[in-house]
Amino acid sequence: MNQTYPSLPDFDELMHLAQADPERLNELQRQINEQCISQASHPRSAWKLQKLIMQISKIKKSYRHPILVCDQLYILMQDVILL
């Protein structure tokens, strides 16, 4: 099956959104997440993606400093890969 993935704006545009309009960036992220979930090849894969997105959101809300968020997300991704 040939899947197409949503395209992202270039890095400079994403950086601008993060600084000038974080709500718009969050909305873009939500839309891309939904597209990826809807294109999952199996319902279990979609469920796993939803679970991962919820875990990421929880981490982003729990830590204020970007380095701590990055560190916790790195740990999460290691756990996901090792499962």
Description of the molecule:
The protein has 83 residues and is mainly α. The protein has two domains: 6-39; 44-83. It is built from four helices and no strands. Helix 1 crosses helix 2 (22-38) and helix 2 packs antiparallel against helix 3 (43-62). The longest helix is centred in the middle third of the chain and has 20 residues, at 43-62. It is globular. The relative contact order is 0.09. The model has no long low-confidence stretch (mean pLDDT 91). This is DUF3135 domain-containing protein. Pfam families: DUF3135.
Strand content: under 5%
Shape: globular
Distance between the termini: 25 Å
The total number of structural domains is 2
SSE order, as H and E? HHHH
- The low-pLDDT segments are none
